[in-house]
Design brief:
Elements lengths: L1 E5 L1 H5 L4 H11 L5 H17 L4 H14 L2 H16 L7 H10 L3 E9 H10 L4 E10 L2 E7 L6 H13 L6 E6 L5 H4 L4 E5 L3 H10 L2 E3 L5
Parallel strand pairs: 1-2, 1-5, 2-3, 5-6, 6-7
Antiparallel strand pairs: 3-4
Helix pairs in contact: 2-3, 2-5
């Protein structure tokens, strides 16, 4: 089995779907715009700095799924994908995915963003396998908590290893793509690690280790 593993936000997308979802909810009047924008910015800075408390962030992001009826939120999500996500699929993303498909690789998106947001994005990109942070659902309703291991930093490694073990066939080769220093443990798993439009910390690490550095934002 050959794998091609892709981070989503700021890698395959030229933006952050989680952050943009928060902005979209504020624009639609679902959340208090000023308060949400302030907290959204704080969490985003913490993510970039590698200090994000993923459980605190999940409680913040998932609150709208607790407070509002699911059909309403699903309708908003569909509009969000059309209006905010389709335009920011990076220029080189579909070509890169097609190249790995043609090589016979199995494609996986792995993202810290919660499954409610990213499941339709994986479908948009025609990627069948998705590992995401899973919101807890009890009796058909979201609780605002995370179920299982958050798919973040070292959790991405644990979740990916569990997924590979569940396939009951060995991984002979792995290519891995990410923009973020938060994913250095994930990139270290791969025989072919690629820094995509990387942040300054990841760019420095990639240069030190001889990892490939590419941009998907230029066609």
């Amino acid at each position: 089995m050959r794998l091609a593993v892709f981070d989503l936000d700021n890698t395959l997308l030229a933006g952050d779907s989680d952050y943009l979802w928060g902005c979209y909810l504020a624009e639609q009047g679902i959340v208090d715009a000023q308060l949400h924008a302030r907290e959204n910015e704080r969490f985003y800075r913490e993510y970039q700095a590698g200090t994000l408390d993923i459980h605190e962030y999940a409680a913040f992001v998932l609150r709208t799924l607790v407070e509002h009826e699911l059909p309403k939120m699903e309708a908003l999500r569909a509009r969000f994908i059309r209006e905010r996500i389709e335009p920011i699929v990076a220029a080189g993303t579909r070509e890169l995915l097609a190249r790995h498909r043609a090589a016979g690789d199995l494609l996986i998106i792995t993202t810290a963003t919660n499954r409610f947001i990213v499941e339709p994005i994986a479908a948009l990109l025609d990627v069948d396998h998705l590992i995401a942070t899973d919101p807890e659902i009890v009796a058909g309703r979201y609780t605002g908590r995370i179920a299982g291991i958050p798919n973040f930093q070292g959790g991405k490694v644990a979740r990916l290893r569990h997924w590979i073990d569940s396939q009951q066939r060995p991984c002979r080769h792995m290519s891995c793509y990410s923009d973020s220093h938060n994913d250095i443990p994930l990139l270290e798993m791969a025989q072919h690690a690629v820094a995509v439009d990387p942040d300054p910390v990841l760019r420095a690490v990639a240069q030190q280790r001889g990892w490939e550095v590419i941009s998907l934002r230029r066609a």
